[in-house]
Amino acid sequence: MKKLYPNAEAALQGLLHDGMLICAGGFGLCGIPERLIDAIEASGVKDLTIASNNAGIDGEGLGKLLRSRQVRKMISSYVGENKEFERQYLSGELEVEFCPQGTLAERCRAGGAGIPGFYTKTGVGTKVAEGKEVKMFDGEEYILERGIRADLSIIKGWKADEAGNLIFRKTARNFNQPMATAGQVCVAEVEEVVPVGTLDPDQIHLPGIYVKRMIIGAPYDKKIEFRTVRQRAETVAA
């Protein structure tokens, strides 16, 4: 099956619909599927539920979909760096399901592995546990968390072969791997596609069985969330 598509719009053709659940890889602006997010914005699809560690920053990454009011609910760990995310949540315009970071990763991994739920100590005795089943194991409380299965996963990889076997680059591995497995369909954007047999099998992070469609998104502009520079040291006269 030919997996490589000419652009993001073509790769998402027939996959988008109002009210769908999307798992989106990335962490802040690191390892996010920029071209696929742009195509989702351009499609006009709405009432989306998106599972992602956060929503990028204002006007970048998933922040574009918040700005265009296409998102109804976020399942996320972190809000702080996106002021529009914060504003919509506090004003009641956006539903937010807060989820501890490791729990969110495991919910997606579990969903992709066919595991409908699991017990964890994370969140016991906090608001995270409200309304959830509590079970005792060895005299200690654990709460039940549900696995996440999405209609669509969108991820960003570094290098792939034509069969969809994929390598992530350094910290861009973050949430991309568990998000990829959690979707009924996974669409990946990558920086380079090479012939089958080029990649060392031991270096592959995501087997091609999980990737249904791909695009080449390069070139990319390096975006920085926080630009931090040192003050220039004063020159001491000799």
UniProtKB/TrEMBL annotation:
A Pfam family recorded for this sequence: CoA_trans
Keyword Transferase: yes
Keyword terms, alphabetized: Transferase
Entry-linked SMART domains: CoA_trans
Record SUPFAM superfamilies: NagB/RpiA/CoA transferase-like
InterPro entries assigned: 3-oxoacid_CoA-transf_A (IPR012792), CoA_trans_fam_I (IPR004165), NagB/RpiA_transferase-like (IPR037171)
UniProt GO MF annotations: transferase activity
Name of the featured protein: CoA transferase subunit A
Source organism of the structure: Sphingomonas plantiphila
